[in-house]
Amino acid sequence: MEIVTDGPTLVLSGDFDARSTWEVRNALRERLHGTELDVVVDLTAVTSMDVTATRVLAYASREASLSGNHVTLRGCGPAVRRMLHLSRLMRFVDVERAAASA
């Protein structure tokens, strides 16, 4: 998992699974408790995601909402969307609806 910070956006690439959740959680926590009010998590280059990753996103979304902020997911491909639906997280997180340009 590679994490690149671009202002309020965290750009993730690679496999978002149990091996990378600690690193992603720390990056999200740092953004949420830093100067950024809202955080965008760009998942365009995420190749796979598991249930532990959905828990990290749920935690970040809840943590942000408790302080009046938002976490928005961007670039959710088919594998990511499938996991968000299976975990029922799709109902509770903000997902950008804009289609990625090809």
TrEMBL record:
Q: Which residues form the STAS domain?
A: 1-102
Q: PROSITE patterns per the record?
A: STAS
The record ties this protein, via Pfam families, to: STAS_2 (PF13466)
| InterPro entries referenced in this protein's UniProt entry, alphabetically | MlaB-like_STAS, STAS_dom, STAS_dom_sf
* CDD domains documented for this protein: STAS_anti-anti-sigma_factors
* Protein's UniProt name: STAS domain-containing protein
Recorded source organism is Nocardioides islandensis
